[in-house]
What we know:
Blueprint: H1 10-20, H2 25-32, H3 36-42, H4 46-83, H5 89-104, H6 116-131, H7 150-153
Helix pairs in contact: 1-2, 1-4, 2-3
Amino acid sequence: MSSPSPVLTAVQEHVLAHIANGATQTAAAASAGVYRNTVRNWLNSRAFCQALAQAQYENACFWHDQTKALAQTAMEALHALLTNPDTRDTVRLKAALAILDRVSRTPSYDDVPAPPQIHRNLHNLAQASAETEPAPGDDTPPMHNPAQSESELTPSPGP
């Protein structure tokens, strides 16, 4: 995980680490010796929420990397189960169904964790583009390059 944020206290960092690793607010509060409502108040703080989101992202990346490192071994184990005639049919069926389930899913950008900063940037870009949308009925073609002149954007008449 990253170094502690200078904005958060040591107790807040302690609670943040517990919550980021899956502890409940109540358990994290108890481990730090603070009230659950204190943790709830911290969750209303922008700095605490940002630090928590970053910690959760880093935690997700860590476990993703760990899983990815074991993927080849897991595939070899599944292959051995599926091709071994001594493996019970129910075990082979469950292994085959698990593989087919994974293969049949189309990956999505939502499946890939992104740092909170990227989500904020995408949100800000979406808002900015919505604000700069041309008004209905405005048929002026958009400029691709701010250095282009109006004459370059206007279609020339046919020969």
